[in-house]
Give the backbone structure.
Amino acid sequence: MIDIKLEPLGKIIQVEKHTALQDVLFDHGVEFPCGGDGTCGKCNVRVIDGDLPINDVQRRYFSREELSSGWRLACQCYVKEPVTLELAQWEMAILSDDSRLKISGREGYGVAVDLGTTTLVVQLIDLSSGNVTGVRTALNPQAKYGADIMSRIDYALTDNGAQRLRQLIRDQLLDMIQELTGDMAPVEPQINRVVIVGNTAMHHLFCGVDITPLSRVPFETENDGQFTWNSADIGWQIPGNPKIEFLPCLGGFVGSDILAGIIATGIHQSDEMMALVDLGTNGEVVVGNRKKILCASTAAGPAFEGAKISMGMRATTGAISRVALENRQMISHIIGGGASKGICGSGLVDVVACSLDLGLIDGTGKIKQPDSAIKISDQVRITQQDVRELQLAKGAIAAGFDILVQRLGILKKDVGKVHIAGAFGNYINVENALKIGLLDFDHQKMVQAGNTALRGAKMALFGSSDYRSIIERCTHVPLASDEQFMEIFVENMQF
């Protein structure tokens, strides 16, 4: 066994010789957004004592001076001797849902699970009162093999990749459930039902469905239905051997988290037209009412999550999360205080909106500064390519809405409430989202709805297991095959 000392944590972990740092550092605050390809540079660590071998990938990424100073890409390193590493620590706020359900009268307890690409939330619900009696949050341990959906899918297609990802997430969720039940000791709660929701990739990876169809056009899966087991069937030791249900997806990359969002917002019961947009790792849009619902997914997530942005990062310690103008100067809010390390999606939207007000960016998205960059702080700036990435993301979301509205034969003014779901949607400045054209609805109609996936999963604990009536009203619209998509998408890239 070899000791790895982690500073400034002051922790020592023991690993076997030749262990990959990617396998052990994620739990201690090191991100691996590109899944270990050595392309994103977000897993930087610095060797204080000992040595980590240097390969060609690191020689391309770091200068000679940086390498001699001890900088390494953790995803490229295997430990061969005792080593002391300096880590850049971060903490991440995970969006839960504390709402009490106005439903009661049942016996026992239920567990609601929001299985996200990035984060996990597990809640223990008292079925007799509808109260939340316990909650656990965590980062999805699969993220060490890729931050976004497509890099996760790429890893799943490697030898034993899917099996490894499946076991990782099942073990993590079981640990979280057991922690919740352990908190109630000496009472052993009788759990009657566990409901899990997630996007299509998470659904497949948890349920053991072949993920290959999601890796290529037309991105239509062969089995996106509901899966049900007794807990013992998947190796979960939970008191009462409850039924485990992973709710069905709606088609393509529109998963059961969006089905849960529809349940939570009541779109399927509404007489008036309503909309739902989830601005998370992927980007999903829904428009409809109790008669008909259309849904679509867009590849908008990476920019909103900070991926593909030169100094982008998640909404964690050191990220610029909000920017506002004071006396025509940009004033930043940094998560956790201290020096800024990068910028997350909500901060990027604010910067572009402020830059439009200041005339630093024109309507086409061109930066009008001599060096084609906008300085936000001493440490952080955004580039022309960053602005283009945001334009691609917001153009895709806006085009998705336009196409769904057209297919329903209505106008945007006919839509009542527009629910903005997900962590990004919860923290975004709605006024700035409107200003850049990410959303194009009346401000008064906007509802920042929080974690609708988790709320819908909780509501499903009290409802029927049959979701056919909702699914029969839902039509998945594959945007890539829509003849008008590219034209509408290009139009919506303008600010």
Summary: The first strand starts at residue 2 and ends at 7.
